[in-house]
Amino acid sequence: ICKSTQSRTSCQTCLPGTSTTQLADGGINPAAGCKACQPGHFAADRGNVACTACAAGYYQGGTRKAACKQCLKGYYQPEGTATHCNTRCTAGKTSSEDRESCVTCDRGTATTDKASDGCLACLPGTYQDVLGQHFCKTCSHGKYQSGTGTQTCETCEPGFFQPDAGSALCSTACPAGQYQDAKASASCKPQ
Questions:
Q1: Is the pTM of this model over 0.70?
Q2: Whole-angstrom distance, CA of residue 145 vs CA of residue 170
Q3: Which parts of 54-130 are beta strand (E)?
Q4: Backbone phi, then psi, for 31, in 5-degree steps?
Q5: pLDDT tens digits for 28-80?
Q6: How confident is the model over 11-39, as pLDDT tens digits?
Q7: Cβ distance 105 to 131 under 8 Å?
């Protein structure tokens, strides 16, 4: 933007977060001054001739801003020029990397009550065999799961038992005077 005084003209470029007006011939209109970028827009550099709209997955609620903010994990914004990002993904889903949409959690994962945590791998003793869930299932008595992010539970082998649900191991052997000839047992049989 240029200003003239008695004998000289001084010019300065618009700061980030502002822009000036470009004329049809490609020149800049010095009389227009620097204008603040409006919500949903930004200008990253000095000397911008126009503010840029925030892309989908991003937002900007303030004026005179040099950047847009990416939506938080678990939230999404499918439209550009957004001034906020408060649409939360539903249970069993989390936001895509670009935050433009939500994606379904894979088997072996689930969301918590807060979609912002993303799709988390099921912990030992749990599993998830269905897509898009917001909880992991607990392994039943006589079964176990030592891994994370799994879709099934393992069964206890004959000679071993697991009385507790949600176990990560099945390493308890039948005590003396008892046996177990079946898989997936919660107890042993007397001899």
A1: yes
A2: 9
A3: 58-59, 69-70, 75-76, 87-88, 93-95, 102-104, 109-110, 120-121, 126-127
A4: -80, -20
A5: 665 567 899 999 999 999 888 889 999 999 999 999 999 999 999 989 999 99
A6: 678 899 998 866 656 556 655 678 999 99
A7: yes
